[in-house]
Amino acid sequence: MKSTLTDNWALAQELESIVGTDAVCPWQDTDTFWQKRIESAIAPGTEIDCTVYPNTQEELAGAIACISRNRRGVLPVGSGSKLDWGGLVRIEPPNPRDRSQVSEPPLKRGTGGLVVVSCDRINRLIDRAVGDLTVTVEAGMKFAELQRILATSGQFLPLDPAYPEQATIGGIIATADAGSLRQRYRGVRDLLLGITFVRSDGKIAKAGGRVVKNVAGYDLMKLLTGSYGTLGIISQVTMRVYPLPNASVTVILTGEVEALANTTQTLLSSALTPTAVDLLSRQLVEKLGLGKNLGLAVRFQSIPESIEQQSSRLLEVGYKLGLKGTICTENDETNFWQRLQSIIWSTAPDSTIICKIGIIASESTKTLAQFNLADGLIHSGSGLGILRFENATGETILQLRQQCESHSGFLSILKAPAELKQQLDVWGYNGNALSLMQKIKQQFDPENILSPHRFLFP
User: What is the DSSP pairing of strand 24-26 with strand 192-198?
Assistant: First the structure.
């Protein structure tokens, strides 16, 4: 796992000349917590040379240029909260038995291994245009900290990511982690107005701008969203923000599959404007103490009069179809969504498997009802969701993937034990765009140094 300090001395010296002596940490001096977090993201046997902590975007660019010249691999990190999502990063030649990685070019490197590059210190607020509803921040800023800053002006960034207290803005974009609020505000890429990133050769590139109706240049914001650090290292973004809602209420309906499906369809085709519409599996509903049937959690956020009318209308529809209903407000509502997050994203025990799924939205209720082993949540408007298993086998995951694919969907593994990730195709992509994606990867990262093997490029 470890490269010797002697082998990496020259690289460390060069990096120290760029970022400072206190910003380069040899692997053997890395604290145990970070070692375990990094090891969860890499294939067994992969060497780590050191961790670099640039303080500015310019230092980040210089560090990447240095690493590229020295033919090392790069593992970009923020807080590390989602570092173990996706494929295991490795630098040895690809395994021909793994269809998802068979054509990926091996890293052209020297005697060293990976360099972990942290954006944690690149975390400044660059600009806040309150009147224009935009904010520009560096990628290492924590999501929770940005929300606290925006709240002082009565605004917020409408995302609901995993691990909100730890997650960084760069990590949220790199993993396209929108959460439940996508029902009203769409996905991460739809909130991005401008982006700055460091290329694999250390050059700084920019796209978009600070205005809502910007059409300058290529739309690299959408390309980099969800690329898992494989095309470039995001260093700064400009995002659209929204006014904080005056009031909020959540309606929770539980009952039989057909009734929930009809209620969901009625809701989505109505004039009601929920900010979140999430289907909940039986296991998840039971853990929340709401019964043993499927559930539907619907959040309304607006002025008090509006949310009262909308919640009453939804309850009326649900009651007519035989569903049970509960309304959560104020602290009860906050506690409900926090508990939902803590259950879905809990990583205990170590055998936990967390998957992202996507299916045809109209099939969401019936499909979720078939997943009897999972704590599951599906965003009804998009058909995207999360499944969490504590003791599932690889065979079970493959069977569930087939179920999703039978509904024109997918199942990708975010978090799982390394042994299982080595056995299975993590991404399970069966579309026809692999060659196109590989060409894009080749253009952005011809030496394949950025998070090699983490994403689905063949």
Answer: unpaired
